[in-house]
Design brief:
Blueprint: H1 15-25, E1 32-33, H2 34-41, H3 45-57, E2 61-66, E3 69-74, H4 81-91, H5 93-102, E4 108-114, H6 115-121, E5 132-138, H7 142-156, E6 160-165, H8 167-172, H9 176-182, E7 187-188
Parallel strand pairs: 5-6
Antiparallel strand pairs: 1-3, 2-3, 4-5, 4-7
Helix pairs in contact: 1-2, 1-4, 2-3, 5-7
Length: 193
């Protein structure tokens, strides 16, 4: 099966590779199970294992074994660590950077990436995303959300535009904004504490 080319970075082989790299390089102090990386990238376990093996061969990641589980971490000592981190932050980084920053905020029912970033990942536009559009559903403190967005901007190197909708407005689709957002590609962020 031919893998579709990466849409958010022409330097990468595929979106799966970009998402796996994002989870690893945007969280360089953490070890991840390959099953987690597969889930995060929306791919099968064998595909994730092949990607991890390629990264291990290139020494971009390190592994440790706990029982039968292989745990993977970005290799912070690799000479290209900073360069890879910068490329990944700009391209696939939003999917990995935003969830941990949003997890501590009260009142979030759902969080979505939308706009050009989501459209490009869904192969619906050729435009390169200049900023990241984030939609928070629920009763969220705008001040706390703005602080989280500012932290994300520092890591990603681009603006994060935060929009808000109540759970009721999202469910009823009673605003033009909600209708427009729902009619276009969305990437739901998984917020696990």
């Amino acid at each position: 099966m031919k893998v579709a080319a990466a849409k958010l970075s022409p330097l990468l082989k595929s979106d799966v590779q970009g998402l796996i790299l994002a989870e690893l390089f945007m969280n360089p102090d953490e070890f991840f199970a390959i099953s987690h990386l597969a889930d995060f990238a929306g791919t099968s376990l064998p595909t994730a294992m092949r990607e991890v093996d390629r990264l291990l061969d290139g020494q971009l990641v390190v592994q440790k074994t706990v029982g039968r589980a292989r745990l993977i971490q970005a290799n912070k000592l690799h000479l290209l660590f900073d360069s890879v981190s910068q490329i990944i932050a700009f391209s696939y980084g939003p999917a990995a950077v935003l969830p941990p920053l949003l997890v501590g905020l009260d009142g979030i029912d759902h969080a979505y990436l939308f706009g050009v970033w989501a459209a490009r990942l869904s192969r619906q536009t050729a435009a390169a995303p200049k900023e990241v559009d984030l939609l928070l559903i629920g009763n969220v403190s705008r001040i706390e959300a703005s602080r989280a967005a500012a932290k994300a901007e520092d890591i990603l190197g681009r603006e994060v535009n935060v929009q808000f909708a109540t759970a009721l407005a999202w469910e009823r689709e009673d605003t033009d904004f909600v209708q427009e957002v729902k009619a276009n590609p969305l990437v739901e962020l998984t917020l696990i504490p």
